Request: fold
Amino acid sequence: MTNRYVFLYASAMVIIVALVLSGAATLLRPRQERNMRMEKMQNILAAIDISATRGEAEELFARYVTTAKVIDHRGEEVVGDAFEIDMQEENRKDPQQRQLPVFIADVDGETLYIVSLRGAGLWGPIWGYVGLKSDMATIVSANFDHASETPGLGAEISESDFEEQFSGKRIFDEDGSFRPVRVVKGGAPPDDPHAVDAISGGTITSNGVQNMIREGLEAYKPYFEKIKSS
Reply:
């Protein structure tokens, strides 16, 4: 067997494998994109305390989410598709150029608002959704996720034990001052409406969640003020 034959055989195999993988990726892309869309709907619904399987997500999203809008840094509505907003890309922009998604839901006659957040954990990006009651101060629920946090430590931000702490917490004081939720190492005071327990052993990720909430909700403040004054 000559070296030329080996080279040609290896080259042909590489080309064939590349074509097969490329074809598979093309065929699977629509399914992958649909799965990502369903997962996003599940996460948005979770922020208003509605649990949905992937199969139920589209139906429940259409039932409860009545409006989706895009706002600018002044809280004014602008043209755009809220569902397609990429918060990673928006966070790279100057704050005055950012566009933010808002999802408005009707649950048992109560109007709820869902906003999108993105930040940085220990090993990579973290993100989430926070649902707010119509007073724009009380959290209904929260949903968080991550790209590569440590299992058993920072990855716990996506577990219900951590997320459920946010239900009923407040992001404004009674006097209207902005005071977003803190993530407290060693345990939050039980009567503090602005604090939750940090993750044991996940200090940097917990701090990342706290910063994401503070900075993310700060960007939505003009919109919150408009809703409260309307």
Observations:
- Strands lie at 65-71, 77-78, 100-107, 110-120, 125-132, 139-146, 182-184, 195-197.
- The first strand starts at residue 65 and ends at 71.
- The chain has one domain: 37-229.
